[in-house]
Every structure is written in C-alpha cells, then in structure tokens.
Specification:
The chain contains seven helices and five strands; from the N terminus they run H-H-E-H-E-H-E-H-E-H-E-H. By secondary structure, the protein is α/β, with parallel strands linked by helices.
Length: about 160
C-alpha cells in the first residue's frame, strides 16, 4: 500500500533550514540573498503568444532570470491554465492571437477580480498609435514592439515584478 507524499510540510522545513543556515553565515552578499529568495519564491509569468518560436524564446529568456514561465498559444490553452488555479504575477501577451485577439482578451482579464491587478505587457509586431492607445485603454502596464531588445524586456519585467 502506497502513501501519498505531501510536500507542503517538507517545503516549509527546507525553507526554514535554508534561511537559518544563511543567517548563520558570517557574510551573505545581497546578491546571494536575492538569488536564494528568488529560487524559493519564484514569480510566475504567463506568456500568451501564438508563435511557437517566440513563445519558446521568451520562456528561455525569462527562465534564465529565475522566473517560472507558463505558456499558452491562444485563448483555448489559456483557459486550461486558468482552470488549474495558478497564480500569475505578470502577463506578457501578443495582440495578434487567433480567435480572440490580445486586446479583447486583456479587456476580459482586466474586468475579472482575480486577474485585474496583474500587470500586463503587450509584445507585438503591431505598433501604431491606435495600438498604443488601445493598450492603455485596457490597462496595459507596457507595450514592447517586436523584434524586441532582450535587455529592455528583462528590465521591464524586473521593474514590474520588483517595484522599488
């Protein structure tokens, strides 16, 4: 007979001992502390992008900075993620999505009480004045034009997830 393994208590014990051991060290650099904190409390970023290459590229970039990245290609995949009751700390979304475009999807998300406080960044090849205005209307925190500068993306993400 097998017993179901519950990880919640184990995680708490590991985190407590890690923090205790870090506190016992004579000197812990701020970078070491931030890195350990990031690993123990990762931020979840939802990327909604229909292009597979762009989606995987964004995942690699954000993974390398210690974020947990969840991917959806369209609104159908998004509903599967929302069904899992996953917490998101940031949403990066393309505008040109199939079936429901990014503006429509953002409007629905921003009108939902559990999703409306999550910062949203549009990442799109479209960059007209009308697109920027629509992004502001639906409450986007930022808008990045493709092709994008990786360092600019990282800076925007870090600023939204770790406001000073």
């Amino acid at each position: 007979m097998s017993k179901k393994f519950v990880t919640g208590d184990l995680i708490k014990k590991i985190e407590k001992l890690t923090k205790q051991r870090m506190a016992e060290q004579p000197i812990v650099s701020l970078d070491q502390f931030r890195e350990a904190h990031k690993k123990m409390n990762p931020k979840n970023i939802l990327v909604i992008e229909d292009d597979e290459t762009q989606r995987q590229s964004l995942k690699r970039i954000l993974d390398s900075d210690g974020y947990q990245v969840l991917l959806a290609a369209d609104s159908a995949e998004l509903t599967a993620l929302l069904d899992k009751d996953q917490d998101f700390h940031l949403i990066i979304m393309d505008i040109g999505l199939p079936w429901i475009n990014g503006f429509e999807l953002a409007q629905m998300m921003k009108s939902h009480p559990d999703l409306n406080k999550i910062p949203l960044v549009f990442l799109s090849g479209q960059a007209t004045d009308e697109d920027f205005a629509k992004a502001r209307e639906v409450g986007a925190a930022d808008y990045i034009k493709k092709p994008f500068d990786v360092e600019k993306l990282k800076s925007i993400v870090a600023g939204l997830l770790n406001p000073k």
